[in-house]
Sequence to fold (306 residues):
Amino acid sequence: MENSPSGQTVPPRRVLIVGATGFLGAKIVANLLRDPTVTVRAMSRKGAPADAAPGAEWVQGDMMDPASLDRALEGVDVVVSSANGYMKESIEIDFAGNRNLVEAAARAKVRRFVFLSIVACEHAADVPHFHAKKVAEDLIRAANVPFVFVRAPAFLDQSADYIANAVKGGKFYAVGDKSTRWSYVLTDDLAANLAAAAAWPGDEITGQTIDIGWRDGPKSQQEIADTIGKLVGKRLKIWTVPWAVFSVLVRPIRLISELGFDLMRMFLFFRRGVFVSDIALQERFFGPAPTSRDALSRWAKANGLV
Ligand SMILES: NC(=O)c1ccc[n+]([C@@H]2O[C@H](COP(=O)([O-])OP(=O)(O)OC[C@H]3O[C@@H](n4cnc5c(N)ncnc54)[C@H](OP(=O)(O)O)[C@@H]3O)[C@@H](O)[C@H]2O)c1
Fold:
């Protein structure tokens, strides 16, 4: 039990993590398990994974099944969601699944919905999974569910770390050109921010839309490659896939891959130079944002590059 400002003990709030088995989602769970002010309930369609860390209560739930969401949300104060379907299954989960989750959160009268959204998604109606985030944000507002939108830029690290693998071979693969800048985040940092938003004790965070990024701003791929090169002590050879390739392939690829179409649309959106985080609220709530050098140095260490 924690003490409130008036000296009364308050029970820890129960946080439901939707997407708890994901690459990012598991890191949100790990952060919240270290926080004594919350109790952790984690949701997956399959129930607890075999390697689940002790301390979380696991519930079975499917965003496409509203009744299962009502059960998962029973007694929950805060829901935090990083779930998505567009990468591995279907973007229907990002549209219909999020709609179901918002409606269930409204029925459960949760005190806060921390939704992982994407920087500048309101300007990206032609990128399906960015648009799905904007639609979900609008649904949450319309349902009058108290919210915090944490908007992520591009992940520097992915579950299959293609940047680290290329760096090991002295290469850096660039999308489009070497000069356009956009913002990045390390998933370790983003997960800590999402957990902090979920556990935030006061109401001043409610209704905020918080971009996440680096203190020294967006970076070009040349700048990223140069910083990594300095950290690992070798000059990286940059291989660039020009924008024209994405412009030509974006329509035909849709015939064979919705995901390919979505990602190419996203790259062409990056080209516009507006995928840039405004970190003012991030620093107000979560403290100084990391610099690119700090984040890249931690990333390089984690990948055994230094
Ligand atoms: N990659 C980037 O550069 C980038 C940038 C900005 C934002 N993002 C966002 O970051 C998030 C990535 O999270 P992640 O890495 O943890 O994803 P992930 O590894 O792809 O995992 C997907 C998660 O979603 C859950 N899920 C999928 N369909 C579901 C359903 N029908 N019902 C309930 N849960 C469902 C899965 O749970 P089960 O399979 O266990 O049910 C799993 O936990 C996404 O929201 C993405 O849009 C990514």
Observations:
- The radius of gyration is 20 Å.
- The mean pLDDT is 95.
- The first strand starts at residue 2 and ends at 3.
